[in-house]
Amino acid sequence: MKGFLLAAFLLIGSLCQAQSVQVVEKEQEVNGVLRRGQQLSVQLDPKTVEKTWKDYLAQKAGRVKSSKGVMVVEGAVIDTISHAPFRLLSTTGSDAQGSYVWWNLDMGTAYVSKDATPNEYVAAENFCVALLKYFIGTMCSARLTKQRLY
Question: pTM for this one?
Answer without folding.
Answer: 0.78
